[in-house]
Amino acid sequence: MPETIASEFVYVGDVMCSWCWGFAPTLEKLSENFQIPISVVNGGLRPGPDAEVLDDRMAEFLGQHWLHVSEASGQPFDRTFLERRDGWRYDTELPAIAVTMMRRTAPDETLRFFSSLQRAFYADGVDVTDPAEYAQLLSGFPVDREAFVEEMQGTDAKWAAWEDFEAARGMGVAGFPALLLRLDDRLAMVTRGYAPYDQLEMPLVDFLRDQIGQESLGTVCSIDGVC
What is the model's pTM? Predict the structure, then answer.
């Protein structure tokens, strides 16, 4: 019987999702230890019309979430960003557009770019919703920075990001982060929501071992067998 090969992890996340930032070390360890490619799909946390102005209420809400994420994951946060009161909107559309464009332009760099945008926003306080920041944010990536920044503000790039949002919903993902495992043409849910690496490692090893050579797997199941 031919073996079924795990072709890739499918990571659904959002650059400006705090729990996705908390999940970043888990993704890094999965990449190092399983040697399975990781593709990135933008989930669409608060894009465009769903964006919210950063006011006192919003800042308090985000601050609580950031505290919980930091406590759970150890990830750093630059909380000075929460002090802005200049009408800034928590709009996740532009970084999603940028990630989608990087996937098209330099696909092998997509996850690294996604992670670098997360760090810039959460740890360094860089406004990743501002197109003017991207000339610097793209430093070190194999793209024409000027052309990239110009194109990411166009209609085609925007629609590509929204197609990602639809793809995420089509996979049954409504919250982030989410990690799935593609086995040939089938998808298995690894985790819905944040999980540390140690919590995923052995169940994932057992799941992969069990699936080698098996002919059927539920369309979308969790690794503990719940479909």
Answer: 0.90
